[in-house]
Write a structure and sequence with these properties.
It catalyses: an acyl-CoA + acetyl-CoA = a 3-oxoacyl-CoA + CoA. GO terms for molecular function: acetyl-CoA C-acyltransferase activity. It comes from Botryobasidium botryosum (strain FD-172 SS1). InterPro entries: Thiolase, Thiolase-like, Thiolase-like_sf_Thiolase, Thiolase_acyl_enz_int_AS, Thiolase_C, Thiolase_N. By secondary structure, the chain is α+β, with helices and mostly antiparallel strands. It is built from 15 helices and twelve strands. The strands form two sheets. Strands 1, 2, 3, 4, 5, 8, 9, 10, 11 and 12 form a ten-stranded mixed β-sheet that branches. Strand 3, helix 4 and strand 4 form a beta-alpha-beta unit.
């Protein structure tokens, strides 16, 4: 007990000794690009490779092993002393007892027992919510250094089928909120007249861009190799080179009994496994620790939308985050929008009138896979890496969220192109 009290006491200065009022969120491009000591910054953003669910490289790897390997790799890559971490948040959706698994993974990875951890589940945005949680901890003064991770094993923890009490399920919106995501894809396609031809065209762009990015080694910059048995997993195994419009058109609908049956295995996000992580801290603390700042967290928005049309979430979340930050669409250099389904992705891109050359330039979840808890962090990892290559600054990431929600965030790239 005496030892425990001494150990806690040594951590109090970091946890409470530097309390400060929450900083006012920067607004407008010029203000956002200014560098302040109390900025919440990102010093590492990386991910594992992704594996095809049930068949890929992580099909037998449970969430705690994925997380432990991710923590170990991130700490080794960054050189961060794990005893200096103030808090950890993990976004994940479907594993049972996720907090116990995450806590055990952190301890196994060598993170001291007095570093706390939490988990968050906001379905497809869970990873982004983990970043938001740690960023808000730091912004409020309750922490100076934190880890935000996202993880999912859709091989071992597939989506459970929600059941509602009859008194709840009799409400049409409540019933819509628990329907399979494929049903919502068909509802969006039907309600907004998104043809199968258009969906396949958007899917082809994703497959082609991802195949090119992998062939040219772009994803290697963002992947932390992970040992799986005797092998090293360092390459996404979901990407399918050589996809054509003809091959996509030949696929059968996976939901023929819903809507018009336009969603296929080729124009929907892949089911997969993987994990991603960001290390966040104040800019002043990064300077003291000798850490390179690669990005700056600006802010996040979360919205609710009609559950039946869940996929339209970015159409509401993106204008909200732009208003919060005082940015215009033209000032955003890169958009990473999750491709849950080509139906909703096409609708969002066209309704928001986004220039397609700025959106998912290296493909998205249709080609890469969408491990639910991982995706919100993966989009930040991929976006920052691409901005670094382009020597550009403003990233907006967004996704639709199961049950009828949407989320979006603004992050600034501060790393220069590496030669």
């Amino acid at each position: 007990m005496v030892f425990l009290l001494k150990r806690v006491a040594t951590r109090l200065p970091r946890a409470t000794g530097n309390l400060r009022a929450a900083s006012t969120q920067a607004k407008g491009l010029q203000s956002i690009l200014e560098k302040r000591d109390d900025d919440v910054v990102i010093t590492l953003a990386m991910r594992t490779a992704m594996g095809r669910a049930k068949k890929g490289q992580f099909k037998d790897t449970p969430v705690d092993e994925l997380l432990a390997g991710l923590f170990q790799g991130a700490l080794q890559k960054s050189g961060l002393d794990p005893a200096k971490i103030d808090d950890i948040c993990v976004g994940t959706c479907h594993p049972p007892s996720p907090l116990y698994l995450s806590r055990s993974a952190a301890l196994s990875a060598g993170i001291p027992h007095d570093v706390p951890i939490s988990t968050v589940n906001r379905l497809c945005s869970s990873g982004l919510m983990a970043i938001r949680s740690i960023a808000n901890d730091i912004r409020s003064g309750e922490a100076e250094i934190g880890l935000a991770a996202g993880v999912e094993s859709m091989s071992l923890n597939p989506r459970p089928t929600p059941t509602l009490a009859p008194s709840i399920g009799s409400n049409s919106q409540a019933n819509d909120a628990v329907q399979p995501m494929g049903w919502t894809s068909e509802m969006v396609a039907q309600a907004f007249n998104i043809s199968r031809k258009k969906q396949d065209a958007y899917a082809l762009r994703s497959h082609s861009r991802a195949a090119h990015a992998q062939a040219t080694g772009l994803f290697a910059e963002e992947i932390l190799p992970l040992r799986v048995g005797e092998a090293i997993a360092s390459v996404d195994d979901m990407i399918r080179p050589g996809v054509t419009l003809e091959s996509l058109a030949g696929l059968k609908s996976v939901f023929p009994d819903w809507g018009n049956g336009t969603t296929t295995a080729g124009n929907a996000s892949g089911v997969g496994d993987g994990a991603a992580i960001c290390i966040l801290m104040t800019r002043e603390r990064a300077r003291r620790e000798g850490m390179e700042v690669i990005g700056k967290w600006v802010g996040c928005s979360v919205v609710g939308v009609e559950p039946r049309h869940m996929g339209v979430g970015p159409v509401a979340a993106i204008p909200k985050i732009l208003e919060q930050t005082g940015l215009t669409k033209r000032e955003v250099d890169l958009w990473e929008i999750n491709e849950a389904f080509a139906s909703q992705y096409a609708y969002c891109v066209e309704t928001l009138d986004l220039p397609i050359y700025k959106v998912n330039p290296n493909g998205g979840s249709i080609a890469l896979a969408h491990p639910l808890g991982m995706t919100g962090v993966r989009l930040v990892v991929t976006g920052l890496a691409e901005l670094r290559r382009r020597n550009q600054q403003i990233l907006c990431t967004s996704m639709c969220v199961g049950s009828g929600m949407g989320a979006a965030a603004i992050i600034v790239n501060e790393a220069t192109k590496r030669t």
